[in-house]
Design brief:
single chain, alpha+beta, two-stranded antiparallel sheet, binds zinc ion
């Protein structure tokens, strides 16, 4: 592993210490107040890493910049996991689901971009998140939008995504490439089991002649059903 700059090396050491403590707190039975404190500690680390990544005149190499971004997103993933536990305890099931999906997405981004690893070291963590999904939440149905994409933009070069060479989900000099869809002609919305976006889910179902929340089965009187 080639890390030239001492502040990047120090950040990595700080991350390793932080994460071993966070993983000890990201367990359901731990005290909720400790978990709230841990979220703040993780937040401070994320801010520190971001300011280092965006600092000018430091001449960090591309692997170093991508490493810093990977550390930020890894800390965000644990923060999402801790938030999920807090929301489960406080009865905010909808938010807890959102936290789980964020943790999964964030971990996948790091696994496919880590500059000094093939990402296999995250398989155990991804399996842990998958276990949460299967054990804590009901089997869910999702909505998938289909249509003709008319205008896209690349978050790296700001040009037309279809024209440039950047790839969505890949990091470039500490920046994640996102394919932004600016115009789409929506053709259909279908219900699917394996969606591209697990945040786009069916929110209510009919049960005993009444619309209820898919997560809690509590009655719902307002809101859309997707
Ligand atoms: Zn581009």
């Amino acid at each position: 592993m080639i890390i030239e700059h001492v502040e990047v090396k120090n950040l990595l050491d700080e991350f390793n210490d932080l994460i071993s403590n966070s993983q000890n707190i990201a367990i359901f039975t731990r005290d909720i107040e400790l978990q709230k404190e841990e979220k703040n500690t993780l937040h401070s680390f994320i801010e520190k890493a971001e300011s280092l990544r965006k600092a000018e005149n430091r001449n960090y190499s591309e692997p170093e910049l991508n490493l810093i971004l990977c550390l930020e997103i890894s800390a965000e993933a644990i923060q999402s996991e801790v938030s999920m536990l807090i929301n489960l305890k406080e009865g905010n099931m909808d938010a807890a689901w959102g936290n789980l999906v964020c943790a999964q997405n964030q971990t996948s981004i790091v696994a496919s971009n880590h500059p000094f690893s093939n990402g296999d070291y995250l398989n155990g963590y991804l399996a842990r998140l998958d276990a949460y999904e299967k054990l804590i939440f009901p089997k869910m149905m999702f909505a998938s939008a289909g249509g003709i994409i008319r205008e896209t933009k690349c978050s790296i070069c700001k040009g037309d995504y279809e024209e440039c060479d950047h790839m969505k989900g890949k990091m470039y000099n500490g920046q994640l490439c996102v394919r932004e869809i600016h115009k789409i002609d929506l053709e259909e919305v279908s219900i699917v089991e394996n969606p591209a976006n697990k945040l786009c889910r069916v929110l209510t179902i009919e049960r005993n002649g009444k619309m209820v929340d898919t997560l809690t089965l509590k009655g719902k009187t307002t809101g859309n059903n997707v």
